[in-house]
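Anyone else keep sequences and structure tokens together like this?

Example one:
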Amino acid sequence: MSGEKDIEKNKTDPKDRYPTEIFLRDICDCLDNIFWQYDLVHSQWVYLDSPRASVTGYTPEEIEAKTIHDIFEMIHSDDSPKIREIFQQLQGDFPPNNEVNIEYRFKHKNGNWIWLSDTIKVIRDEQGKPISLAGAIKEISQIKNLEKQLSESERKYRELYENAHIALYRTRINDGKLLACNEKFVRVMRYPSKEECLKHYTMEVYNHPFRRMELLERLSNKRERFDFEIEGKRFDGSPICMKVSARIYPEQGYIEGTMIDVTAFKILTKIELNVLKLVLKGMSNKQIANQLHRSVRTIEDHRARIMRKLQANNLVELTRKAIELGINGFANKND
């Protein structure tokens, strides 16, 4: 008979054997949140999850001794105004049973700032008047630090991208629309601004559109392609010969790559490149003539043709355009 009684006892509803308050507290202990409820009518805490309240460095008793307005003073000054505004909305005409999630910096007892995420719900009486607030707080300092590190990494990458000495771009596969580029690309293509470049750059810049189709075909066979030459025109109508290195991302629908302007190496003869190299070193016509064993008049003719081909009106413009075309680097490599 005693065995049957034991069996009957085990069949008892678990809730009858496990007090609700203890049951709920044990569940809360398994969750990584601080649960709380605050009585708006009497300005006091109804419930504060003691085991994890120490995340702020304060004991539950220390927190319970503070009003909600005391807590506001412990929130970072940059976050406090928005928190106060949200609490005013919660206590006003905020829709019943609705909730809000807020993130803010809270001053730890040791003086450091920690990030908290708080999901708050308003509790109203039968007339719809707010009587208390209930919430679940989670510390997110580690997440915020990771976000900050990621943001800093993205900022540094963006700076490197924008200030790179080589033209970088991203175009859409299906129609060649320019999706992104850096400042070097804008300067090489001689657009007045990046906005204009992104707006107007299309496949029409290519003299022979079939060359782009050929590039796409080669990229589809092998995802990367290096030093692929394409002839086209810049924004101002001047010709350009580009060496493109690209990689295709078919799943994302775009191509990314680098572009080097090799126009000067196509339109200048070998002797003109040598003369330009020496001009960029600051040598006079007479010095260049002596070094290349040519007459001064011949060097003057070469310089005039170089200026005309590069569309430069003076030495300053010639130097700037030579640097843009990478001829300055060419000169250094051939010293």
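And example two:
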Amino acid sequence: MDILTHGLLGGTLAQSCSRKGETRAATTVGFLAALLADADALIRSDADPLLTLEYHRQFTHALIFIPVGALLVALILWPAFKALRYPIAFRRIYLYALLGCATSGLLDACTSYGTHLLWPFTGGRIAWSIVPIFDPLLSLILGTAMLAGLRWRKTLPARIGLLLAAAYLSVGWFQHQRAEEAMRATIILRGHEAEKLTVKPTMGNLLLWRSIYRANGVYYVDAVRAGMGATVRIYPGNTARAFDVTRDLPALSPDSVLHRDIQRFDFFSDGYLALHPDDSGLLGDVRYAMLPTSTRPLWGIRLDMRQPETHTQFETSRQMSREEIDRFIGMLRGED
């Protein structure tokens, strides 16, 4: 989830549990504590671009890290409150920090990116895919509640905001179920047997969803418009042959750095790998694209067979043409 929504959720939750006279302190601590988990973005290496992918949403987002992260935040903020002569005990700062830290991993698990909630007990990523990575409506709900609580110094607005946020996430779960059921029915009608299926919301809404499934070594990408009525509409999209390193790069040694980087990227992408349709030297994560029917990935790794012993480069592309924007808006509206 975007960093602002993280802070808003952490601040609102801490505010909802604050004592009289501690509303502002609780909100500040909870807001800042909720941002700590994303400090993992600072773990990076110029020599190894994939290092940041391995550690993003890893141990700092794990449930086991919550009390540790809260302690770090409390130790940093306690001297600041003392310097400002704000009368608040260390244990209260720790409690508000604990509440803020508790929201980070769980909120990120609601997205499709994948979060290591159960690290180090399991290496798998949890992704419930019920809310977009950026959702302005969820941010608005939390922001309005938090600001109202600060204005009136009451816990009631925060509690109402949390209930509304929970209701919104429930709508996301319901919409996800509708979109997935529609795609499973479509897969059967096509005569396919899906080896794996992922359905995820598109940016900023719960109406238009992106579906990716694999059948007979091919990825099929579709858009699913799950309106608030009974109608669910499928927009057929593009296809891409699933990447196979043995078939597509037969000359690449399994002991090479590039081969190991492909395996690392494969784990990060949950196996959804395909070559870029317009650039055969770029291996992309098919789960993400700007247009929900496209196989042009948002990011990928460069396959440079001339330097197999050098770490691969990670590349991103978030550009949309005017035509693609119009198509996205049309699908969002449910047009032909």
